[in-house]
Amino acid sequence: MNTLNHLAIIMDGNGRWAKSRTLVRTDGHKKGADVVENIAIYCAKNGIKNLTLYAFSTENWKRPKSEVDFLLNLLLKFIKLKENLFLENSIRFHTIGDLSPFSNELKDAITNLKNKTKDNDRLNLILAINYGSQNEIVRAVNLALASGIKINEQSISNHLDSAGFGDVDLMIRTGGEQRLSNFLLWQSSYAELAFTPTLWPDFTSQELDKIIAKFRSTHRKFGAI
Ligand code: IPE
Ligand code: IPE
Ligand code: MG
Questions:
Q1: Cα separation of 58 and 135, whole Å?
Q2: Which of 74, 76, 184, 208 is 20–30 Å from 145 (CA)?
Q3: How do beta strands 192-195 and 50-57 pair?
């Protein structure tokens, strides 16, 4: 049985979910935020130590400003209003990605939730925001170089935003596309990949449970036999 230390999810399909109901795309994002809560609780209760969720990519700035603003505002609301989710389930909040372009209000809310949850030890919930894997690797290499450290696999890993959470064991993408969209490329070098057509707002802990059951029984070889 494989242990699942690090689960990563590309939460895709919010826009199509809304469109199929003749709603506006942003309604899909709103519904998607509720699913985050269910999935985080499932992970906290099922012994998963690290859950990384792709919430906003470095490429998502290409969307219309109104949608970008909505997403960042939804993120702010989630962080401010969901404190109880973190406290009641002993979830510690982290982020990966370059936070520098965000408003001070958002940056302060992020810092505040990180501080408030720093002693929680059941689950690390890591939100990938303004995250791009290539950007993260470049920043990691520059950080290592600036401290005079030799570049090798270990030193790059140690300087990634995700250092400490371990490589991804299982990567799930909802919404039917079969691509990684610049998410955790380095950390997923040996991840098991699961693609489901379910749109993120329809994704349930029951489906997650099935995907994890399959993961647990997979023979992971890491190049050996
Ligand atoms: C994923 O849903 C959420 C984000 C990328 C923020 P999408 O908004 O990409 O939904 P689709 O892929 O257009 O259906
Ligand atoms: C990936 O979804 C980013 C997030 C889920 C945050 P996208 O919808 O942005 O990816 P592409 O454009 O289909 O590759
Ligand atoms: Mg999408």
A1: 8
A2: 184
A3: unpaired
**Residue 92, annotated as binding a ligand:** no
Q: Count the domains in the chain.
A: 1
Q: What is the pLDDT of residues 95-114, one digit of tens each?
A: 999 999 999 999 999 999 99
3-class DSSP state of 135: helix
Q: What residues in the chain have per-residue pLDDT under 50?
A: none
Tell me if 38 is assigned to some domain.
Answer: yes
Is residue 89 marked as binding? no
Query: What pLDDT, on a 0 to 100 scale, did the predictor assign at position 55?
Result: 98
Q: Is the CB of 177 under 6 A from ligand 2?
A: yes
* Tokens matching residue 37: 């809560």
* CATH code of 147's domain: 3.40.1180.10
